[in-house]
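Hey, resending since the last one bounced:
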Amino acid sequence: MKVSVYSEKKAQDEKISWFKSGENIKYYANGIKKEPDYAWSKTYYSLTFTYTFEQDNDIVLFAYSVPYTYSNLRQDLHELEQDKERGVNIQRKTLCKTIQGEDLEYLTVTSRDNLESFNRRKGVVLTARVHPGETVGSWMMRGLMYFLTDPHNEEAKMLRENFVFKIIPMLNPDGVINGNYRCSLAGCDLNRRWKNPSKVIHPTIYYCKKLVKDTHQERGLLMFCDLHGHSRKQNVFMYGCNRRDDPSACRALPYMLSKLNPYFSFENSRFGVQKSKDATARIALFKELRVIPCIYTMESSFAGVDMSKDKGNHLTCDMLESLGRDLCRTLLIY
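The structure tokens again:
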């Protein structure tokens, strides 16, 4: 996996945004011991790489993954809302305030035509960035939002006519703004707080869980999916749950997605109800809602793919956006 690089001169002269570069990349245990409480890893690690600067007096930025900030999100939401054709099918609201006082924004996307069918439409809840450093989740979410609101795409139109989408594109804005990798401003891993979230300490999870349950009670929930990043595996894949009486119930939708998108691996996907994951969104919602099989964590590699014609290449932002689009398209088949 190479490093993400941004050169101001390349961007200005060659119109090149973030790109992958770096040589002699190494990640290794450096021998500096951790405190005993961190038993899962006894030492700290170091990352080293070599980069050759191509131009003088350039400003160059390095990142683990191509950034997607809270400001980027606000800009995208504003663009979608202000678009005269897209905005017709969007309702933008604030679900709650974060600990820092930021807006937790969400979109409701559905057709405003044929309102007679509105009450019969099933609900779909989609979230991302509960872990702030997993920017790949935001790029998938961006593709999803722009596809669902496309006024000229017939598949998107069919989805809007048949479903009500509740989209929370950034579940942990405090963590994103403050540069955290995994935790919230309170130092919590918010994806381990779904079993019993605090309204005060974990407001975004508390109100998101309420939104999921309210949607299910109001119209029936077809799918919940939380978009994440994965630092070890390649490709894009899902973690789902399992019904012993009907194992195919949780596996059908990911299998269909693997036939639509060349970067999604059904083989890398796993299905189970692990006790160690009891307080994650996937397990907590699966146990509490019971009748809903389509509750997933969708994981994108930070690296690349070992399948399709792009085997051996990094996942680009365009590739990630295609995953968000095809996740929605899969619902039409399902």
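Residues 3-63 form one domain.

Sorry for the duplicate.
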